[in-house]
Predict the structure.
Amino acid sequence: MTQQTFLNLPRLEVSPEPPYDPLQAFVRENHIALEGSGCGPLSGLKFAIKDVWKVLGSTCGNGHPLWLATHGPDEFTSSIVTKLLEAGADLVGKTVCDELCFSISGENWNYGSPINPHDPRRFTGGSSAGSAAAAAGGLVDFSLGSDCLGSVRVPASYNGLLAMRPSFARVPGDGEAPYCASMDVVGFMSASPDTFERICPVMLGEDEKPAAFKRLLIAEDCFKSVNADVAQALAPAVEHIGKFFEKVEPVTVAPDGLAQWVEVFRTVQGYQVWESYGGWIRKHRPHLSRGPKERLEWASTITLQQFNEASRVRKEIVARINALIDDETALVLPTAASVAPLRTAALEEINSTRLQSTNLLCISPLSGIPQLQLPLVRQHEVPLGISLLAARGTDLALGRLGAEIVRRFAD
């Protein structure tokens, strides 16, 4: 079925706002809902998408009312959204994200911050905040988000979701608001391992060759980069995950230190984000909250020489990861540095947690390999995530393994 014929299918009624939104997860001004094909592997499932993708009949908001006001109606529907609709799932709405997606807290002073269903006092994490809240709160069966520095992985960790950041370019990203050309990907999340496993083949397609995971590497430098109580809380999950492998070995991921990798990431991301937003910001002068504003101001100062040097070092990082992780190997590490921060936390505390988490979150985007977030642990009575990284192109095998790990942990 082609996209053109698909878009002639009946559309759900478009109301001023979603009919039921107790978690403040959905956008209102540009809300849209579309019925799926009614048949296919995802028939009967409902999904939501982060408000960064084009959907014919709507307008992309990208987390800021001025972006919405200065961009015209969507000319087409992004191919990944069309693919899910053709597979039978119903799109129930677009979800709130951080301003211009340049944060991981889930806070948006323009539209309000989606509510974490595990603890309303805490942030959902972002920038795919509404997508995570909707999936965790049972408003949808699964949701889509975009992920550069953890924008799917962090909210999934904070909200107790299974989530995938696929290999770079594994899932087509057409129709997405511009962000970071060399590291941003389409990710997805669900509260149910059965639903997640059902989604994986549709989202990812088949792996080029079968992957049989036999060796688990424990990222010692990553576990040392988080507070001791976090590492201790994750220990039972590491032990459980290890049962699915023949060998378990410790490893140092970044021999020269994760801090160097973070600087490489920040430089590449910042330069490319400013390439995406700089012209629009200079033209329209949007009012931004402190965090995104400060990061964008810094991004505007990055020179081409700095970007080229960071890109050179990035190639060395890719070589290191490729040498470390083959098709039979997975790497386990914390997803984020803590549970979801309290909404009353000072900005300095949130930024400190963000920096600590960046040590963990930069590895997948720098190397282009897939990362799977697993909801196995609770600390302070709320979810705390743990992740598996695997070789590029083993995404489907990794997703299926993760679903089984979660099911058997529940047993």
